[in-house]
Amino acid sequence: MPLRPSRARGLLDGIPHRGAAAAGYRAAPECDGEPIATYAGMLARGERPDAYTFPSLLKAVARAPPSCARGGGAVAAAVHTHVLKFGMERSPHAASALVSAYAAGGGGASARALLDACGCGMSVAWNALISGHCRGKRFGESCLSFADMVRDGVTSTPVTYVSVLSACGKGRDLLLGAQVHKRVVESGVLPDLKVENALVDMYAECADMESAWKVFDGMRVRNVVSWTSLVSGLAGLGEVDRAREVFDRMPERDVVSWTAIIDGYVQAAWFREALEMFRQMQYSNVRADEFTMVSVITACAQLGALEMGEWTRVYMSRQGIMMDVFVGNALIDMYSKCGSVERALEVFKDMHNRDKFTWTAIILGLAVNGHGEEAIDMFHRMIRVSEAPDEVTFIGVLTACTHAGLVDKGREFFQSMIHSYKIAPNVVHYGCIIDLLGRAGKITEALETIDQMPMAPNSTILGSLLAACRVHGNLDIGELVAKRLLELDPENSMVYILLSNMYAKSNRWQDVRQLRQAIMEKGIKKEPGCSLIEMNGMIHEFVAGDQSHPLSKEIYSKLENVIADLKNVGYYPDITEVFVQVAEEEKHNTIYWHSEKLAIAFALLRSEPNTVIRIVKNLRMCLDCHNAIKLISRLYGREVVVRDRTHFHHFRHGFCSCKDYW
DNA sequence: GAATACGTGA
Predict the structure, then answer these.
(1) Which nucleotide has the shortest C1'-to-CA distance from A235?
(2) Which spans of this chain does UniProt mark as PPR repeats (predicted)?
(3) Which pLDDT value is given to residue A126?
């Protein structure tokens, strides 16, 4: 095992002769470069570091951006060089810190070698190994290290238990967690607040709430951490209501508890509740931090709440909250999901540290907003800076090919993903390929691909092929796909809508009637359409036919005027996708009152002229709304962005970015 | 004064 650090890259090279800044280490704004500069200054003054210097230095560089040193524990190695230079390798303090840093940075072998060599303060060094692996997200390694420690007969301390329990929880290893619990009880370290908290958290992370409560109830002393573990455990199980009850019962709440409940709402897709909790948090005198803001920005993204998303940046600068890589990534995603690629790109360009999430977010953002070629360029840039793409990155790349109509390129990327990057395609990747082929009109090939997939197609895949059949007028395969789709998902009202649309297009009115009959008989209900629009920081929700908005009267009369205007330029309502069994005239009303039309009427009433109208819809847009909005964008000179369940529609000058394919 | 518990992103 190498005890000498292998090629340490950059981080502390040149110290003490030059300052830290000249040493190839340029602290990014969110990265605290202070301790390194301090260390450099110390050496420059001829002072010798002592046993405590290196642990604090390592703590500081643990937060260094990955671009400074990547993999294999290079950061640890850089510091290791200095430790050796000053002959401090026998210091248990320095050695333990190094073990931890090596393990965290992926230098498991070096960490182990160092541990075996240092021999003193055994428990602490083992603890460092276990927790280091945990910090590096290698939970299995962490657990194995604990097993080795036990086998070597090294005494476990409370810190050992806390570290290994944390690894069990994060690695979802309930079996080992329960075994450690037994040892904890036998060891006699209880009662110990931190160990008990680690137990509660381990059980909560492993979704065993019963055991978590049992430990919690048995605790003589509890603190905010004990409570927060329960809150996040419940939230993680999707039981956000119960999480909220526990949250409300907590004797005190800190920023972590608040973030846990806010994020719980986000994970449960209760985005408005998440924002409401954030509002309450501001009243509670607990300051938000980067973690909180990531959840808040995510909620804004999902709601399409661009104004509020923008406001978070003002808020963060006022509150002194750093824009770290997590926040930056969340912002990129938020702008993308609000249909504002330009702003997403601005954030991307301003980011000093980027990781694979950053690249993936911008690739996806460009791709779904119809900038396929630029997305592919980004992918190549990502490869050039040696950031390794993963399966999500390829979803972005394949989506980009779909949007740019690059069938062959998409196929190439799919192959290179499998063979060069050794990523096994999942059902989503196949979905992209089906979409790619379907969109290009290669319906037969798409169907063949579905049948050759190593997994069963889901309703998304079949649905995308059905949509392709509609656009390309392939009724034969369309009927086939619809049948398979209904076997999979009998309540799927979209199937009937698309199929009926195709029948109508081929003048098969008898089939249209039969389809309608079938729907009536089966009692299939269409999920109500719902559109969100943000206005002056408020999120307004419209459901089809909904009259609950305070300005309802004005909105409906505005809508009537708009429809009259549209009819003057040749609009005629398209009711081929209307399924309720009512008179023709009422069918017209049904589509006039679709939620996105109400939202647009509201926007035309209340928003500033020339501003972009942004709507988020829960379902696929209907044909009629798509036609109507194209005309509205031309007639009123307004840009409209609609994000529906699967696509972005950027309407400008009478055209839609989806080129009528969705 | 080394190792330790709760909440982040595509």
Answers:
(1) B7
(2) 122-156, 157-191, 223-257, 324-354, 355-389
(3) 93
Q: Tell me, what DSSP letter sits at residue A572?
A: -
pLDDT tens digits, residue range A488-506? 888 887 888 788 878 777 7
- Looking at residue A94, its pLDDT comes to 84
Strand ranges (DSSP E) for A119-240? none
Q: Which residues of chain A have pLDDT under 50?
A: 1-9, 16-31, 65-70
Cβ-in-10-Å burial (0-12, 13-18, 19+) of A390 comes to middle
| Cα angle for residues A33, A36, A41 (degrees, 5° grid) | 125
The CA distance from A250 to A265, in Å, is 17
Residue A31 confidence (pLDDT): 44
Query: Which regions of A311-363 does DSSP assign to beta strands (E)?
Result: none
Q: How far is CA A247 from CA A230, A231, A234, A238, in A?
A: 9, 6, 10, 15
CA of A370 to C1' of B4 (A): 48
Provide the residue count of chain A: 662
Tokens 């390829």 locate to A394
Other beta carbons less than 10 A from residue A245's beta carbon: 12
CA of A169: nearest nucleotide by C1' is B5
SS3 A643: strand
Whether the Cβ atoms of residue A464 and residue A485 lie closer than 8 Å to each other: no
Question: Could you please report the per-residue DSSP string of A485-515?
Answer: HHHH-TT-HHHHHHHHHHHHHTT-HHHHHHH
**Residue A587 C-alpha from the chain's centroid:** 40
Token pair 């789709």 is at which residue?
A485
pLDDT tens digits along A88-125: 777 888 888 888 888 888 888 888 888 888 765 589 99
Domains identified in chain A and CATH numbers: 1-120 (no CATH), 449-525 (1.25.40), 530-656 (no CATH)
Q: In this structure, are strands A640-643 and A648-652 parallel, antiparallel, or unpaired?
A: antiparallel
Cβ of residue A572 lies below 7 Å from strand B: no
Q: A496 near A524, Cβ under 8 Å?
A: yes
Work out if A262's Cβ lies within 7 angstroms of strand B.
no
Å from the A54 CA to the B3 C1': 14
Cis peptide before A191, with omega less than 30 degrees from 0?
A: yes
Calculate the angstrom distance between C1' of B2 and CA of A91: 9
Neighbours of A370 (CB within 10 A): 21
Token pair, residue A99, equals 């073990």
How high is the pLDDT of residue A29? Answer: 37
Q: Which of A364, A383, A385 is nearest to A374 (CA)?
A: A364
Question: What pLDDT shows up at residue A13?
Answer: 57
pLDDT single digits (tens) A535-570: 988 999 999 988 999 999 999 999 999 999 999 998
Give, in order, the Cα–Cα distances in Å from A179 to each of A135, A161, A187: 22, 11, 12
CA–CA separation, A610 vs A607, rounded Å? Answer: 9
pLDDT at A121 (0 to 100) = 59
Asked if the Cβ of residue A254 lies within 7 A of any atom of strand B, the reply is yes
Cα(A470)–Cα(A498) distance, rounded to whole angstroms? 7
State which amino acid sits at residue A196: E
Q: Which residues 98-117 of A interface with strand B at a CB distance below 7 A?
A: 100
